[in-house]
Write a structure and sequence with these properties.
Blueprint lengths: L19 H15 L1 E3 H8 L3 H13 L3 E4 L2 E4 L1 H4 L13 H11 L6 E4 L3 H16 L8 E5 L2 H7 L5 E5 L3 E2 L6 E2 L1 H7 L6 E5 L2 E3 L3 E4 L2 H12 L4 E4 L11 E4 L6 E4 L5 H9 L3 E4 L1
Parallel strand pairs: 4-5, 4-9, 5-6, 9-12, 12-14, 14-15
Antiparallel strand pairs: 1-3, 2-3, 7-8, 10-11, 11-13
Helix pairs in contact: 2-3, 5-6, 6-7
Length: about 280
């Protein structure tokens, strides 16, 4: 089934409609590089019809991800002035598969927390897109609470998401805010679910990260959450990082990839963690 209405003259040049999420990602990557795109050059670059590009540009503008111009779009500065490590990656990337499944564990209307990291950033992006195009889309269909500046920057552009950014001192390495201001705000909030990025997770040592300040805020996010979903690639499972976030009995779900060591996965399951491999 194509993404074009019946009877529309334009058709994709290769005869098949590319996946819209992938196509949008390619458009945004091009826009991040060039700052401005025309309908004609985008259609040529992605091998789709100009009619498809116009519809995509209109929808991206509606979501405040681009600024529509006559014949094209301009980059929304706040959305694209971000480090390359936070840009969307290929769907074949384990982080993207993990993000897709983790996002599916969040329901519309929930209050969901995110700490910083590439996997949590990808999860937030996936979740925002799903809510936007789902039957429950609308004002404040989801509340996002985060101490990560890059996640807050992306989510605030989504009109259907209420974004709560914790205060504090930002670390340029991770974009995470830490310190007493972040703690003060977080102590006044409750989270239905926390999507927790980690640097290490073991059955014996629990969840951990590299930075003490981040560990303290992450630990408080765990305490304020009814459900904790750890999202991390397989090389982090069985590994212990410098600073402890929480014990394993505070982790409800692990979403990871099959590269995680099986013996550690078995130990985590025995400890009561629900494990999803993607």
């Amino acid at each position: 089934m194509t993404d074009q209405p019946a009877g529309e003259a334009g058709t994709d040049l290769d005869g098949q409609a590319p996946d819209r999420a992938r196509r949008w990602r390619q458009m945004l990557d091009l826009l991040a590089e060039r700052g401005r795109l025309s309908v004609t050059e985008t259609a040529a670059a992605l091998s789709v019809s100009e009619a498809t590009v116009r519809r995509d540009f209109t929808e991206l503008a509606r979501q405040q991800l681009v600024t529509r111009t006559h014949g094209g779009v301009l980059a929304t500065a706040v959305a694209y002035d971000l480090p390359a490590r936070y840009r969307a990656s290929s769907g074949s990337d384990p982080k993207e598969r993990i993000a897709a499944l983790a996002a599916d564990l969040v329901e519309p209307g929930m209050v969901v927390g995110f700490n910083g990291g590439t996997t949590t950033s990808a999860t937030a992006r996936r979740l925002a897109a799903r809510i936007e195009h789902g039957p429950h889309s609308g004002e404040h269909a989801l509340t996002v609470v985060t101490n990560a500046l890059n996640i807050a920057t992306e989510m605030v552009l989504r009109p259907h998401i209420r974004t709560v950014s914790l205060g504090g001192v930002a670390r340029p390495q991770s974009y995470e805010m830490t310190g007493p201001l972040a703690t003060l705000v977080l102590n006044e909030l409750w989270l239905d679910v926390l999507i927790l990025g980690i640097d290490g997770l073991t059955a014996a040592g629990g969840a951990s990260c590299r930075h003490v300040g981040e560990a303290g805020i992450n630990a408080l996010m765990v305490q304020r959450a009814s459900r904790v979903v750890v999202a991390g690639t397989g090389e982090k499972v069985g590994h212990r990082a410098f600073a402890r976030i929480c014990d394993v009995d505070q982790v409800d779900v692990l979403v990871t990839d099959p590269s995680a060591p099986e013996d550690e996965l078995a130990a985590l399951r025995s400890a009561g963690v629900e494990v999803h491999l993607v």
